[in-house]
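During the reporting period, our protein records have gained a structure token line. A sample record is set out beneath this paragraph:
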Amino acid sequence: MLTGETGAGKSIVINAVNLILGGRASPELIRSAEETAELEALFDVPPESVAAKTARQRGIDVSDGLLVRRTIQRNGRNKIYINGRLGTSQMLSSINLHLASIAGQHAHQNLLNPDYHLLVLDQSAGLMSLRGEVGDCYQEMLPLIRGLAALRRKLIEQSEYRELLEFQYKEIEQADVKPGEDQEVEQELQRLKHAERLYETVGSCVDRLYGSKGALVERLIATGRELEVVSKIDHALGSLKDRVDTLSYELEDVAQELQKYVQGIVFDSERLEATESRLDTLQRLKRKYGGSLDAVMEQGREIKEALRRVSSLPEEIVETETRLGALYDKLTGQCQKLSEKRKEAATHFAGKVQKEMVLLGMPKARFEVRFKGVPFDENADPHLVLGTGGIETTGMDRIEFLMAPNVGEDLRPLAQIASGGELSRMILALKAILATKESVETLIFDEVDAGIGGGVAEMVGKKLASLAEFHQVLCITHLPQIAQFGTHHFKIQKGVHRGRTCTTMTLLEGEARVKEMARMLAGVDITAKAMAHAREMIKGQAS
């Protein structure tokens, strides 16, 4: 139990715990004239706890405890150290999520949120595993649903695109382009255009080399013979005679090649026209598809692949629909099973809540769990609809806790009827029901005594004591009827040290605790009667 005067600094303790648990840090938390604030906490972590397993998954050894240190700087930066190693707020939150939770005003707000009601019911009924399976299946379906919609849109959009691809592919395929063909066709065109000139010129060259009287070949042969005769006189002329023979052979071969060329010259106007048309086709394809025949052929391959993808869209749609259908059957089966178990558990759960409310001073209160379907609109995907309701990651149910705190009143949602005191007791009732289900090690209650007093406060204290059988419980309270149940009692007080205001926590024992309890009973003037009453309250709990 943590007690103290109003303004002694109890909120500072809660703020500190929030930060240690991974809450958002603000430079406003740093005291005046200082540049940094520092917090440190040591947790004793059971080796088989969820927190320990989470820490080990992150490579953190907690066999000697979990030491968390956090520094906040005025420039907005802050550092987190976990067992001496730098960490992140996300890492800290993932571990500390299972170490401690604060039930304060935030818990009151949660209690007014129907989404939290469904979580509480599932936790109490042991349905979190099945709920997780539903969520996993739901999350697996979402990308497939988005993908199917995208495929269908693409199929509609690509009907015209497919026609264009088919036209382009047909154009390139029918052209039957060969590498380097444009240069060959252009050369052939030149030969056809200038066939007459080529025939005359090359024919004349053949005559001069070989065909006419006194041709070069004939003269070279005669020259060779003459050199052969005189080489018998001077052997040095023999090598020159051989070179002349070689020249005559070469010229004779050239003349024969030219003769063949002349014979191959074609005078064909139709062939000329066809060649011009072919060259025009190749030039047009090059302009249209990349500037070269290599680019045209590559474009043809790409268009063929694009056509294959477009043509496979109907198959992809069918395949995706089949996968979605199987998942939908699985999801709806899980949702129906989860819903049935929830409805079975709801009656039992409501009965347990009513029993807890009786123990907390609300004997006439009535409590009910009301089910309703998940709303959906006409644009909802059919794979996320079951019967007359929708499906979401938590299943096909939405629930709300209804309560009638007094006789003669109708059941209404908690947000409409519950007072602060009733909400505080409702939180305690739920915590008591979930005591053996929750994995969190420490429960911290802030202002759990809001709106209550007297005998009800004592009931709340007893309930906190019962929770301590399953968790470490820390409670900030103003009521001695609650404080009397604490195994350890700390006093929070404000003082001045070296010119600065400080808040300290002191463990109270013996008469010091009696005096604090008497202050809570009597106020400023602590009487002997108040001391005796306080002593009696503490003694009663000790016995």
In short: The chain has a mean pLDDT of 85. The first helix runs from residue 10 to 20. Residues 150-313 form one domain. Residues 148 and 395 are 22 Å apart (CA to CA).
